[in-house]
């Protein structure tokens, strides 16, 4: 497979998949999402791969969705976009190999949500997290509405989603959002160390455990994802979204009207 927005490295038993659009802080355009899905499908089929690390080139893990591409979507196109992205969500959950998110820099919007889908998360001490959807008049997607409250509780999840405030890596660690805080610029080393520990365990045991743990989640999640697609499609058509995007690119505070 020829990748334009994904970079891959292989170690013994480990595949590292990098988001590779550093010039736009690894914004998750549709092409990148589809390449990531294809890369995960290839890793799933490769018996030599026992563990996957998802990381990113450049200074950010992912700044979230590509706002320039979203600005002119119709409600139907917005719903279809989310439905396509949900194939990636379900692949991460269904893939019977452990996936580690190694977060360098910003994990914002869909980038934050993507991290939540992974089985383990390690973050550089200088990384930060923000559920930035509300700042541009959208709802959280990539199933964050399900996973964030599940991990940190409804009240704290509402605070992050309703206010869109930035959270440090240390705060994320204290809330249990990440498994390890990596210091001294050793993110890749720490991620590989965890991956090597997982590779040494029974792949069948890990795969079956992940499948069973996610079984009940997946039943509820399919209904939620359809509602997410419909709601986000409506938000794409709102005046608030247009104002939020314009304010973002103009580097000013948005003036939302609830329309």
UniProtKB/TrEMBL annotation:
Superkingdom of source: Bacteria
GO molecular function annotation: isomerase activity; lyase activity
PROSITE patterns xref list: ENOYL_COA_HYDRATASE (PS00166)
Keywords for this protein: Isomerase, Lyase
GO biological process, alphabetically ordered: fatty acid beta-oxidation
Family indicated by similarity: Belongs to the enoyl-CoA hydratase/isomerase family.
Protein name (record): Enoyl-CoA hydratase/isomerase family protein
Organism: Cytobacillus horneckiae
């Amino acid at each position: 497979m020829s990748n334009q927005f994904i970079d891959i490295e292989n170690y013994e038993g480990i595949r590292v998949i990098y988001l590779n659009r550093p010039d736009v802080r690894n914004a998750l355009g549709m092409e990148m999402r589809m390449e990531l899905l294809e890369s995960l499908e290839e890793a799933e089929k490769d018996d030599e791969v026992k563990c996957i690390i998802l990381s990113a080139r450049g200074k950010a893990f992912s700044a979230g969705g590509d706002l320039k591409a979203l600005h002119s979507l119709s409600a139907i196109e917005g719903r279809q976009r989310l439905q396509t992205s949900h194939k990636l969500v379900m692949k991460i959950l269904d893939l019977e190999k452990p996936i580690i998110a190694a977060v360098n820099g910003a994990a914002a919007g869909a980038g934050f949500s993507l991290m939540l889908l992974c089985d383990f998360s390690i973050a550089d001490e200088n990384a930060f997290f923000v559920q930035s959807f509300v700042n541009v008049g959208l709802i959280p997607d990539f199933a964050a509405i399900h996973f964030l409250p599940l991990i940190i509780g409804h009240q704290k999840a509402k605070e992050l989603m309703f206010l869109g405030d930035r959270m440090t890596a240390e705060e994320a660690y204290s809330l249990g959002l990440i498994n390890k805080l990596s210091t001294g610029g050793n993110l890749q080393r720490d991620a590989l160390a965890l991956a090597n520990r997982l590779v040494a365990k029974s792949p069948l045991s890990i795969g079956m455990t992940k499948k069973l743990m996610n079984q009940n989640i997946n039943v509820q999640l399919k209904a939620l994802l359809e509602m997410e697609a419909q709601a986000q499609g409506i938000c794409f058509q709102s005046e608030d979204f247009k104002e939020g995007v314009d304010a973002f690119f103009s580097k000013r505070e948005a003036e939302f009207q609830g329309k």
